[in-house]
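Please predict the structure of the following assembly.
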Amino acid sequence: MSMLETRTTSALLYLDGVHVSFDGFHAINNLSLTLEAGEMRAIIGPNGAGKTTMMDIITGKTKPDKGEVVFDGTTDLTKLDETKIAELGIGRKFQKPTVFESQTIGDNLLLALNVDHRVRGTLFWRETRAETDRIERVLETIRLTDARDRLAGSLSHGQKQWLEIGMLLAQDPKLLLVDEPVAGMTDVETHQTAELLKEINRDNKTVVVVEHDMTFVRELGVKVTCLHEGTVLAEGTIDQVSENERVVEVYLGR
Ligand code: ADP
Ligand code: MG
């Protein structure tokens, strides 16, 4: 490939030969990953494997030293900043929930919608019908319909994670990146989160979810990629990956 052309691919997300180093330390080392439109992929791997850095690369927070990162067939993400990448329809949920605690659940979702923030501050701003409908649908998906008027600060940790996923959904992204959503959740919340992500994926969203909880990953029932030292160690079904000797050695057996 010449430096000037961008690869054309049928995949929604295509990473090939990606390298990132921090002060000489190779955090991402020849990473290649292909995600089809409509797919959900689980990413596992030990701490420091590069899972979060991979999300930083996709969202433009970190620029690779080398390699291709292509979205939706033709868009070279390495040339775009974080705002532009978000505008393409790539939404990200960080590990820690960052909802507006002193606002209601409904207002948190409204704030997340792509509306003109200057107009919203005035007396004349009204929620449009389309926005109301969108918020209703998101509230149903994240199981918070009855909590719409409660303050976000009163939610459980698990519910805050769902609200934040809802804030991403309000923006109608094509690709959702979700980093360790079930950390700190109860078993029931963990199970409900698997159901929730499966619903979101059935609704035609492509999803990348990083998680250590193997019960949760198994419940997702999707293709799994195990990262180690910044590269793909194994890829396949949860059974294939969890039986892989190297995966057991560096991750599951620990
Ligand atoms: P994971 O999410 O799989 O636990 P990370 O992507 O957070 O791993 O980190 C991969 C490696 O890169 C780790 O060794 C981490 O310390 C290092 N790293 C990540 N971000 C930075 C940074 N901004 N500066 C220096 N080192 C970093
Ligand atoms: Mg991480």
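Strands lie at 13-22, 25-35, 40-44, 66-71, 75-76, 90-93, 175-179, 206-210, 223-228, 231-236. The pocket of adenosine-5'-diphosphate (ligand 1) is lined by residues 22, 27, 45, 47-53 (CB under 6 Å).
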